[in-house]
## 1
Amino acid sequence: MVALLFILFLLVPIAELYVLIQVGQWIGVLPTIALLIADSLLGAFLLRHQGRGAWRRMTEAMSVGRIPARETVDGALIIFGGALLLTPGFVTDIAGLALLFPPTRAVVRPVLVGWATRRVTIAAMSVRTSPGAPSGFDVDGTATEVEHPSPRLQS
């Protein structure tokens, strides 16, 4: 996790600056700025378009009584992709565009779901097996109902 944060907060901005400088030297400063603005506008358009489609698929799934698991993951990927597109820089724009296209989401979705499943399983196992964990959970199903007198405030 620390390595991921290191990459996100240090290496991505350095890569963005390098690519911006290279593109600026290749096509000029004003065309580079215009390209960044066009990327942001395209990102906003694609985010709105893909987001509406994901919302429609989610409501259709719920209307037929199906849990919209895939649609929810797609919606999260679309929001994340849109945020990357709205962030200035070409590296994040490429990643954001990739997340806004359905074929790429189909590749990323199982990886994300697998990662999240492992994280939830590990968290659930650590709560269940950690010493000092709250004993209010009936893990083995041996709880019985006990009649208690009505609670009274102590004076």
Note: The helical segments are 2-27, 29-63, 69-86, 90-100, 102-129.
## 2
Amino acid sequence: MLHYDPPLNFYRSAITPPDDYSSNEFNATLQIYPFRPFSGNIEQMFQKTLLREWIDPRYQETNVAGQPDFRLASVPGAQIVLTARFAENIVGIAKPRMRMVIVAGRPR
């Protein structure tokens, strides 16, 4: 079970899933999806597709600009945490995006 504190100064949307938060201070949103079973190489799939097919259609990017910057991160209790920073090209304007995958459960 993933437990987290909702981000401060963010408004939570009533439409779920995913848990959707919008900042009250600047132009930013955060979506949190529940854990799901997965078999295979999650790192390879994340680098190939950014797990776009797991993202609610309201938040899927349509035009990734350039190569994403993939990194490892850490979260207490997680086996591995993968992040990707990338830009979505929206009518010539680069919109920064970040995606994070937290892997918990079975060993890799």
Note: The first strand starts at residue 10 and ends at 12.
## 3
Amino acid sequence: MKLTTKGKFAVTALLDIAIYCDGNTKPITLYNISERQNISLSYLEQLFVKLRKSNIVKSFKGPGGGYVLGHDLAKIPISDIIKAVDEDMDARTCRGDKNCKDNGKCLTHDLWAGLTKELYNYLDKITLQDLLNKANKKDLQEIVFCRT
């Protein structure tokens, strides 16, 4: 089980949109996110294809184009973001197929299955709005927040 840069960068990029979006009317470019968050532009492009397919973001083409959030901040759980970018956080070696050892369950299968369930339960309860609420208000004083 490992949370890779896919999940971490996707959450960071979406939080950036939430912070810098102007009332959900001004799309944010991936270039701007890339510059602010020091994430490769090509990597962001790959992530946002998946985020758009999952309806987590909406895209706008042409001059003034970019991305906005597809839903209200309070309706985007972190688990959905992680799943959208194909992040696999299953702690079980068999990924739930119960073929850990000799085509059967290993001795610790249920332990890792429980951990995986708890992890997703935790991430299901945290939304982008929650992260924004916990952000250091002093650091964000001059930033316009996106409200959908």
Note: Residues 144-148 have pLDDT under 50 and may be disordered.
## 4
Amino acid sequence: MSAAGHGGAGARRARRGSAGAPSVERLLTGIAQLVTPAGPGAKRGAQQSELHVLEDAVIAVQDAKISWLGPASAWRGTAIEEVDLGGRAVVPGLVDPHTHLLWAGERYDDLEDRLAGVPYQRILARGGGIRSTMRATAAAGRDELLRASRRRLSDLVASGATTVEVKSGYGGSVEAELEALEAIAELGASSPVRIVATLLVHVPDPEERATRLREVRELLIPEAAARGLASRLDVFVEREAFSVAEAEQLLLAGREHGLDLTLHADQFNAIGGVELAVRLRARSVDHLEVSGVEQIDTLAQGDTVATLLPGVSLELGLPPAPGRALIDAGVPVALASDLNPGSSPLYSTALAMALSLRLNRLRPAEALVAGTVNAAAALGLDDVGWLGVDARADLMVLPEADWRALVHGMGGPGPVEVYAGGVRVDRDAGAETPRRS
């Protein structure tokens, strides 16, 4: 296919319509197959496999939003600029609702030890694991940390992500966590895609547990919320992290200060984190590798989104989260990369979706819903993850006419084009890439 057919400069021209017809900034044409979930909000049960498919479509963009979409034959407006997408499929921009991409240092020694059969507890005891990441992140300067984080974010965007959640959690003090959140804010201010900041209370210092809990409740959460550094609070509920009772204290403090709630739960042990998430009506509960029938039934009774992280199962050899059973029980399921240096060095949101077919037994349509509109619902967002009038013009252009190329291949479907607010933002966009306002 020619460069013009791929939406290059040669494909752009003014498009004229009839007098009095609507005029827009940009018109995306040549869409062989436009595929989207139906509107905002978490989809569950049979809805998680429902997609709207429109052939030979066009999308009109005005002020970063979709102002019109429909069959090309029905368009009567004018456009300042037209971009011919060359007969390819378009899906909503992917939403990655769980990442830890702000870190310094690497954990190559941990990988070799793990492959040699060294238990994680021994890796921690020698100073490896998350403790080594915390030390390296604390030692890194702001510029170094941001350079590395921008590279990782660029990888996620290249895979189709147009909304990315980023957590703190590698700081060992109130000051370090606030500095991490400040860095995330700076990352978001210079990013062409939306960044959602989450304050993560990750692992306690066993020697200062009570002090740490009090500081988080009384200092960190109020300060982060008051300064607008985070919109969400995440707590890791696990035997090696926080108990259900401790997590509840922290989450209630977060709610008191206006933060949305989410939890890491059931990664290694089912100790009540899922039940707590549903009881507190958290937006999402993430991991669920060891969730069983009781946890699935609990989730089915509530509105909390179950966010699956297949990269963790692949990397650590954990049982995959029960995606098939969750969907069959009517639980809304989302997907995320969980990009981090230890348990999921997965730099592709699209690959997380492809892995979910193989590991979590999702079907292609379910994976697309999980990676778009349900992932948006996990973040409390209603203007992304679907394509329709008044949604943000965040979308992914696939290299062929059948959207299933997105999840069929595990090395990516080939070169994709990514648009945020109707403007191309992937690595090949060149001078088109804007700074997001």
Note: The domain at 4-92+386-432 is CATH 2.30.40.10 (Urease, subunit C; domain 1).
